Amino acid sequence: MSTPARPPAEPVCPRCGAPHEPGQEYCLECGYRLQAGPGVIGRLSGGWQSRFGWYPGDWFWRVLLGLVIAVAGATAAIVLSDAGAENNPIVATAGGGSPHTPTSAPQTATVTLPSVSTASGPPPTPSNPPPTKTTAPAPGALTAWPAARTGYTVVLESIPSSAGRSLALQRAHSASRAGLPQVGILDSGRYSSLHPGYFVVFSGIYASRGQAEAARASAAEKGYQLAYSREITR
């Protein structure tokens, strides 16, 4: 009498032991992947399960790939940074005892100084000495007519000699303080071009009548409208 054939045993999940249908991809109890998927991830997951008996999930490979890429990028950045630092030129700074000693001496600027004479003697005189400053007469000062000088002047006033020289001096000082140039007094009896018997208050000593006329106009602006030009001769 023959023994009846036993039905084949149902496959079970290697993680939890729950039975599953042949060809089923995932365990319905624990989610374990029963069939290796296609492609590289499928082969990797199948090898992991056969090696360790459990499988964390397909997400593991994506995370692992991202981690590998991040580590590779950081390593490449470090290598490139070190290579760039090696190519930078070394700049020597003053002080501090630099280990790199220059092989050539630094360039020295040459300055030509002006030659100085060592000969003894007085210092040289400049070819063009500065002009001598002339001091303007103080306000109220009087000017004497030069001896034996023939020229032209502006007669401001003619005061009779009987009035006294002191009056003529007062008028002359007043004209000088008013700003008229070279104010003085002439005794008309000593000059052939003047009528005798007067003290003449004059302003200016000029070489031509034209200069005297220009000075007369200036005197008229200062209040001496009756002034006139006159030649003075001995």
Briefly summarize what is shown.
The chain is an alpha+beta fold. The chain has helices at residues 39-52, 59-87, 165-177, 209-221; strands at 151-160, 183-187, 198-206, 228-232.
**Principal-axes shape call:** rod-shaped
Report the count of strand segments: 4
- The pLDDT mean sits at 77
- Which structural class fits the helix and strand makeup? alpha+beta
Largest sheet: 4 strands, antiparallel
State the end-to-end CA separation. 192 Å
Radius of gyration: 64 Å
Order of helices and strands: HHEHEEHE
The largest beta-sheet arranges its strands as 2-3-1-4
Helix content: 25-40%
Can you count the helices? 4
Uncertain stretches of 5 or more adjacent residues: 94-98
Percent in strands: 5-15%
Descriptive overview:
With 234 residues, the protein is an alpha+beta fold. The protein has 4 helices and 4 strands. The protein has helices at 39-52, 59-87, 165-177, 209-221; strands at 151-160, 183-187, 198-206, 228-232. The chain has a 4-stranded antiparallel sheet. The chain is rod-shaped and about 175 Å long. The N and C termini lie far apart (192 Å).
